[in-house]
Amino acid sequence: MFRERRRVSTLPNYVILILMAIFALVPILLLITNSLKSTPEINLSPFSLPREFLWSNYTTAWAEGNYANTIRNSAILTGFTVLFSVTLAGLAAYALARLNLKGGNIISFYFLIGTGVPAQLFIIPLFYIWKQFGLVNSHVGLIIIYVALQAPFATYLLRSYMVALPQDFIDAARIDGASNVQVLREIILPLSWPGFLTAALVVGLFTWNEFLFAITFLPNTDLKPIATSLYAFQQRYGRDWGLTNAGSVIMIVPVLILFLLLQRNFIEGLTQGGLKA
Amino acid sequence: MTANAYQLEANRTKLRQQVGGWLFVVPVLLLNLIVVIIPSIAGLGMAFTDWSGVGSMNFIGLANFEKLLQDQVFFKALSHNLIWTVFFLIVPVALGLLGAYLLSGIKRGQMFFRVAYFIPYVIAAVVNAQLWRFLLNPRVGMLKALADCCGLSFLDVAVFGSRDMALIGVAFVDMWHFWGFLLVLYLAAMSGVDVELYEVARLDGANRLDQFRYVTLPSIRPTLVFTILMITIWSGLVFDYVYVITGGGPANASEVMGTYLYTSAFERFQAGYAAAVGVFMTLWVGIATGGFVLLRKLGWEV
């Protein structure tokens, strides 16, 4: 029966699937090849490989775009957002999954409302509240926002991991007199680390790429992360394609490397996010 | 110890666990309250004021909403959100379904294709915008190449600078980064479909199209309906791609509610009026979600 099924030709499948892969990937490849050409060469032949690799686009973009600074800013924002989101979400997920909280339904409902509210409703008041407290133009201020926005999703993701853990281990530890914190640290954490990795990757990607809150809450050039400083860079160097393409590639290289290494975790986490949001 | 004492001890442990448990949840709840819930309520209130962002704030009743209903730019933006919704409900859904169906039919290379389609989704909006500003540039881009080689000179236009093409051009770029994500969602749903259903359909003489229509589509309906809901919501809230590529221009030709709100608040300093746009956008989300819930209440299995 199965053999017969295989006999259906899959050639048309492959033809269309390859065309779709070209559609998805070729634009990115063109971005990379054209980041290694001079702008006159791009104007002349945008679709060919570079005659010679013009690495100076990268050094120029790095200096002109002040990447040493913006990468540090992005690293600070991303690092702390991931750290705090995943830690706080881990605590919350543990309680929701394992401690039979009374009123757990209320929390789930709250998360549903809290994550369903569009950013456009609260971003304006939030901006003026943050301004009152000196949290505009402050990495701390933006990290608080990012953690608040990402922790509910991370909680949801981690909870689904922790619910699946075997209860026996936890019972055994409880009999030995382990506290909540001990159970979390010694049993839950080691067993659900793939969930933590997935949550960290999704939160990290969101933060690295985030635009709306970054451009609103960090107008100061020195504090900008890559996303918004690259935007300013593109505006300044408009048609200098070689340079702006190089600037873009710098931003996506860490993402692409991590994605290719850990694509299972990325895809699992991001599609769960889509399913929940 | 007596049985009673055991009972007491057990109760105490339980209580301690409950209180301790709530302490674990409180930080996330509190942050969400401060960043989302309280400002959202403030946003609802702000929509009824004439506040500019600084200075005094006066209650002006429904004046902002009255103004909104006579604001041609706002209606233009709203209609663009509707066009955006229709475009996104058709193009990426069709591509995603087609790709997922074809991909579920092959064994070799499934992983490669899945990763390839997903890559644009993890790349930042600013980079994707740059990419397509370059590719669709009238001087060097793809369209010019097509126009030159194949005599299709009508293609050689400045997509993002043209009043007729700007909106659909931006929607295309956003779609390009999004359809692979949908494909992966549909693929996951399709991998859960019982193989025997296909066998039965084949024995009944169903060709591939029939199988797709009568086996695949009904089987993945929950996922399909869910993505339709998400797309409808997101299409009302879109901001990044429009703001980065055209800023809503030229002459509001690609303005959407999200960019209109943003420029009203932070460039024209009409915080109260912008908040009213925000309330409208929340209404959009509410109506979409409400419709979904209603359909479910009416017994529509999803």
Topology (elements, then pairings):
The complex is a heterodimer of chains A (277) and B (302).
Chain A: H1 2-6, H2 11-34, H3 39-44, H4 56-64, H5 67-98, H6 104-116, H7 119-132, H8 139-163, H9 167-175, H10 180-191, H11 193-209, H12 212-217, H13 226-236, H14 241-261, H15 263-276
Helix pairs in contact in A: 4-14, 5-8, 5-11, 8-11, 11-15, 13-14
Chain B: H1 3-46, H2 63-69, H3 72-104, H4 110-122, H5 125-135, H6 142-150, H7 166-190, H8 195-203, H9 208-219, H10 221-237, H11 240-245, H12 257-266, H13 271-297
Characterize the structure shown.
The complex is a heterodimer of chains A (277) and B (302). Chain A has 277 residues and is mainly α. Chain A folds into two domains: 2-34; 59-275, MetI-like (MetI-like fold). In chain A, 79% of the residues lie in helices and 0% in strands. Chain A has 15 helices and no strands. Chain A has helices at residues 2-6, 11-34, 39-44, 56-64, 67-98, 104-116, 119-132, 139-163, 167-175, 180-191, 193-209, 212-217, 226-236, 241-261, 263-276. In chain A, helix 5 (67-98) crosses helix 11 (193-209). Chain B has 302 residues and is an all-alpha fold. Chain B has two domains: 1-46; 66-125 and 156-297, MetI-like fold (Orthogonal Bundle), CATH 1.10.3720.10. Helices cover 74% and strands 0% of the residues of chain B. Chain B has helices at residues 3-46, 63-69, 72-104, 110-122, 125-135, 142-150, 166-190, 195-203, 208-219, 221-237, 240-245, 257-266, 271-297. The longest helix of chain B is centred in the N-terminal third of the chain and has 44 residues, at 3-46. Chain B is flat and about 95 Å long. Chain B starts with a helix and ends in a 5-residue tail after the last helix. The mean pLDDT of chain B is 89. Chains A and B meet through helix 2, helix 5, helix 6, helix 7 and helix 8 of A and helix 1, helix 3, helix 4, helix 5 and helix 7 of B.
